[in-house]
Each structure stands twice: as C-alpha cells, then as structure tokens.
Design a protein that fits this description.
The chain is α+β, with helices and mostly antiparallel strands. The chain has 7 helices and 18 strands. The strands form 5 sheets. An 8-stranded mixed sheet has the order 1-2-14-11-16-9-6-5. Strands 10-15-12-13 form a 4-stranded antiparallel sheet, with no helix packed on it. The chain has a two-stranded antiparallel ribbon with strand order 3-4. A hairpin with a 2-residue loop joins strand 3 (85-88) and strand 4. Helix 1 crosses helix 4 (144-168) and helix 2 packs across helix 4.
C-alpha cells in the first residue's frame, strides 16, 4: 500500500452560522487556512440544506451507473462546441471545463503515477439563467433545475466564506474591504465547476498495484476555494501538512511525504447527522495572499481492502474560481504585506485567473490538447 502517516491532524471545525462575532469567525478561518489550508465547516443545513446534498449524491449515483455509451457521448473531448469564449493569452479560445472524464483519463501526479487516476468524474460548468451551458446526459436532463439550485447553494456559501476571509485578512476598506474577494467571483464568466466524483472498487481482473496506484494523484486545486462533500464510511482523502513541506521536502509528493488522513467525521462531529463540509484553499487564493493562505497538496487513496472488494467512494466538489479577467496579485492587506513565504517569492507574478487556470489544465490533461488547441477539461 502507499505509505501513510497515521498521526492525528487537528483541522479545526468551524461553525460560520453561529451567532458569535463575525470578526472572530473570520480570524478562525484565516488561522486555519494559513496553518492547514483545509477547514471543516459544521454542516447544520443553514447554508446548504441537507436534503439538497442528499439529492446531489443520488443524482451522482444515477449518472455513474448509467450505460457507458451514454457517458461517452458527453466526454470532455466531445463537448467543446457548447462553451463560452474567453480571451486567453491574447487569443480567442474556448475554455472547456465540462463533461465526463473516464477511468484513467486524468493523471494528477504524472511524476509518481504508473497510470491515470482510478476514478470517473462529471464536470458541470456554470449555468446561465438556470440553464446548463453544456449537454446533459439522459440520466440528468430532467434534473437540470436541481443541479442549478445545488450549484447556486454552493456558490453562495463560497461568497459568504470569501467575505469572511476578506474580513479576517483585514483588506483595506478603500479597496473594497469585506467585498474584495466576493465581488471578483460574480458578474462574469469563470472556471467555477461542480464536479461529481466516483471512485469504484477495483475489478477482480484489474492489474491494480497497491504500491503505485491511486484513486486521485497528488495535486492542489486551481481556484480560490473548494467545497468538498463526502459520504459516511467512505474515507480516502489525505493531505501533506504545509508545515512538513520545507527545505528538500517542499516539492516531495511521493509516498515518502508526510501524507496524513483527513477523516470524513473529525473528532467531535461523529454524532452529527451529516459530515461537515470540507473547505480547502486553492492556488488562486495562495497567489492572492502571497502564500499566507496555503493551497495544500492532497490525494485520494484506496482503502486497505481494495483488492478484495472494499467500497465505492462518492464525493462532490465545487471549485470556486474568480471571474476570468481577475488579476491575481498580492491583495491590499497589511497581514499579507508583512507575510513572506519563500516558496512564493520567485513564482508569483501577476496573471489573470484565466491564464492561471489554462496553465494548470495543460499540466493535468497532458494528452488532450497541445499549444494552440482548445482547453477542454477542468480540475
């Protein structure tokens, strides 16, 4: 099996709906994001109703159990024509981030993976006036409004979090203050994506190698923040704590890194009706904060019993991105100005959100397009 550090990781569980000081909650979020890059949100159904989450998982299971030929008709390489044009690298391109991703299509950690990820995914891009801007499969076409509503729930929660992050970072009021981030995540096209994920059990005839193979390779997310919804009894997420990525270990994402499990139910939430929502910082936010908030590398591993069956794993991610022409540069915050992260000093340069996303897509989808071709996939 891939090596894992079984030590405990005390990622904070924060209730952003509680009736306490908004500033206190904002500071808690910033502290957690700067230390771990991950935060648990207490899930009491106030921001996203529990029934909406359950329905989303029901739809996910229906889609992934549909015939292969139905899914193949909407694979990412076949759905480019349904997308909205953006200006990228001073040329007109279509940023495609929608469609079905088949088994082994993605290789999130090409350096350390033998073959692509053991997973399927379905990327659903932004809706316009309640309508999907891509072809929906037969299994989901009658649930367009449900998918739109769930995506809206997710985006509204992200806007709430972005406001709190701006408060916690004490963004200069003359530059927008608490609305600095949220205003840059609405009002225009972006890479925001709702992603349904399915990690099936290993088929008996598979040449699965427990030393090398993985459900989702090591990676960080591309956008500002990600919401992750998980199912009870379906673990597998692991992170490399940012505190361990120093010196020669800064770029070590192999099995020798300090991989640490992130439980579905962290201590103190075991009796909650639903798992907490897991929030993690993406690369765009790390850029904006000059490395103060951490875009933490993570992966999804097989359970120990994978070869003898195990259990399917389902999760749902919402990737929140800034509007495409937003420039990623150090934000007007004294906290950020005073912070120095040596990892960021040479890497950071102003770029638009679209440019940043394109660079990451190219790194992930090696064989799907080359320079001069269209970007056709998503995180």
């Amino acid at each position: 099996m891939l090596e894992t550090n079984r030590g405990s990781l005390q990622i904070p569980v924060i209730n952003i709906s509680r009736s306490v000081s908004e500033l206190d909650v904002a500071r808690e979020l910033v502290e957690a994001a700067a230390t771990y890059g991950f935060i648990y949100l207490k899930n009491e159904g106030e921001d996203i109703p529990g029934e909406a989450v359950e329905q989303a998982f029901d739809l996910s299971r229906i889609f992934f159990s549909s015939p292969m030929e139905e899914k193949a008709k909407i694979k990412i390489s076949e759905t480019v024509s349904h997308f909205t044009p953006f200006i990228m690298f001073n040329r007109l391109r279509t940023l495609k981030n929608a469609g079905w991703v088949g088994m082994h299509t993605e290789t999130l950690d090409a350096k350390n993976q033998r073959i692509g990820d053991f997973k399927e995914a379905f990327n659903i891009h932004e809706f316009k006036d309640g309508k999907a801007q891509q072809t929906l499969p037969p299994s989901l076409v009658n649930h367009e409004s449900d998918l739109n509503t769930f995506q809206q729930h997710c985006h509204n929660l992200c806007l709430k979090l972005l406001k709190l992050f701006a408060i916690g970072l004490e963004v200069d009021s003359s530059s927008g203050g608490s609305t600095y981030f949220s205003s840059r995540h609405q009002g225009g096209p972006s890479g925001c994506t709702l992603r349904l994920l399915y990690y099936p059990t290993v088929p008996a005839e598979s040449d699965y190698n427990p030393i090398l193979d993985i459900r989702a390779g090591a990676h960080s997310d591309y956008g500002s923040i990600t919401l992750l919804f998980q199912r009870p009894g379906q673990p597998g997420l692991e992170i490399i704590p940012p505190s361990t990525q120093t010196g020669s270990n800064a770029e070590n994402f192999s099995s020798t890194a300090a991989w640490t499990p992130v439980p579905v139910f962290p201590p103190g939430t075991e009796n909650d009706p639903s798992p907490p929502i897991l929030v993690n910082i993406g690369d765009a936010f790390e850029y904006w904060t000059n490395g103060l908030l951490k875009s933490t590398v993570h992966r999804v591993v097989f359970p120990k019993e994978a070869k003898i069956g195990g259990e399917d794993r389902y999760s749902i991610a919402y990737f929140c991105h800034p509007v495409g022409d937003t420039v990623l540069e150090a934000i007007p915050s004294e906290k950020v100005r005073l912070f120095r992260d040596t990892r960021m000093q040479h890497a950071m340069k102003p770029m638009t959100s679209n440019e940043h996303l394109m660079s990451r897509l190219k790194a992930t989808y090696l064989g799907l397009y080359k320079d001069g071709q269209e970007a056709i996939a998503g995180p």
